[in-house]
Write a structure and sequence with these properties.
The structure holds two protein chains of two kinds. By secondary structure, chain A is an all-alpha fold. Chain A has one domain (2-84). Chain A is built from three helices and no strands. The termini of chain A are far apart. By secondary structure, chain B is mainly alpha-helical. Chain B has one domain (6-136). Chain B is 66% helix and 9% strand. Chain B contains five helices and two strands; from the N terminus they run ααααββα. Chain B has helices spanning 6-28, 37-54, 57-63, 68-88, 114-136; strands spanning 98-103, 107-112. Chain B has a two-stranded antiparallel ribbon with strand order 1-2. The longest helix of chain B is centred in the N-terminal third of the chain and has 23 residues, at 6-28. Chain B starts with 5 loop residues before the first helix and ends with a helix. Classes of the chains: A mainly alpha, B mainly alpha. Chain A binds chain B through residues 59, 62, 65-66, 69-70, 72-73, 76-77, 80, 83-84, 86-92, 94, and chain B through 1-3, 8, 15, 19, 22, 26, 34-35, 39, 43, 46, 49-50, 52-59, 133-134, 137, 139-140.
């Protein structure tokens, strides 16, 4: 029973990631693409968690932490590039 | 234009310490578990990159007054030095040794010279990655 539920959730996660990839390619504006990238990151984290439940292992938990950190930093960098046009400033003026 | 980013700064103040702790944990868990100097250094450098993103270069340089190019050079020196050290004992280059020691607090602990090599690798990765990020983000 639980195996079937996990498999179904994996299929649904992959469908979600494909929809987000379509949004990255088509996306009319830049914030759409950034949101779709963030969504792919969250779905990848959930997928890895489900896979580690299926395989009954604890080896992937560090992967989850690293993916969370990297998608956090990536989202901050993208939104800062959209909002200010520069990612790392030399001297902030305010 | 002044932008209000109180939430980002407050979150970053806590998250940076979590990332640094996780990087050190990854560095120490190498050799038996997933981890090691390289990815530990990458996680540490991602914490520094987050600091540079949220604050600006001048502020971070005031708090962390290191030249990251020199840190990379020190790391390479440490890594090569741990290899040359084995030559002095008549072994091959980069031969590593380990042993079990009875320490006062930790009990019987396995100490190894691989940690020196991994520390060199971690310092090199931190220095090189932060230097690359700061160089390609230069807008002058």
């Amino acid at each position: 029973m639980i195996e079937t539920m996990l498999m179904v959730s994996l299929v649904l996660f992959s469908i979600t990631i494909s929809i987000a990839i379509i949004r990255i390619i088509l996306g009319p504006s830049m914030p759409d693409r950034v949101l779709a990238l963030d969504m792919i990151g969250v779905n990848l984290i959930a997928t890895i968690a489900v896979v580690s439940i299926i395989l009954k292992t604890k080896a992937f938990l560090e992967v989850i932490l690293i993916l969370g950190i990297l998608s956090f930093i990536g989202t901050i960098a993208f939104s800062k590039a959209i909002e200010r046009g520069v990612i790392v400033e030399r001297k902030r003026d305010g | 234009m002044k932008i209000n980013d109180v939430i980002l700064k407050t979150v970053t103040r806590i998250v940076v310490f979590i990332i640094l702790t996780f990087g050190v944990e990854l560095f120490l868990s190498g050799h038996n578990n997933p981890g090691g100097g390289f990815i530990g250094g990458l996680v540490l450098s991602s914490a520094f990159v987050l600091l540079y993103l949220v604050n600006d270069i001048e502020t971070v340089r005031k708090g962390i007054p290191f030249d990251f190019k020199k840190i990379a050079a020190i790391g390479v020196f440490l890594a090569v030095g741990s290899g040359v050290g084995s030559v002095l004992f008549g072994e091959n280059f980069l031969t590593q040794a380990f042993g079990h020691f009875d320490l006062p607090i930790f009990g019987v602990t396995e100490l190894s010279t691989v940690v020196l090599f991994e520390a060199g690798v971690a310092l090199t990765v931190v220095g090189v990655v932060v230097t690359i990020i700061l160089t390609i983000s230069e807008d002058v």
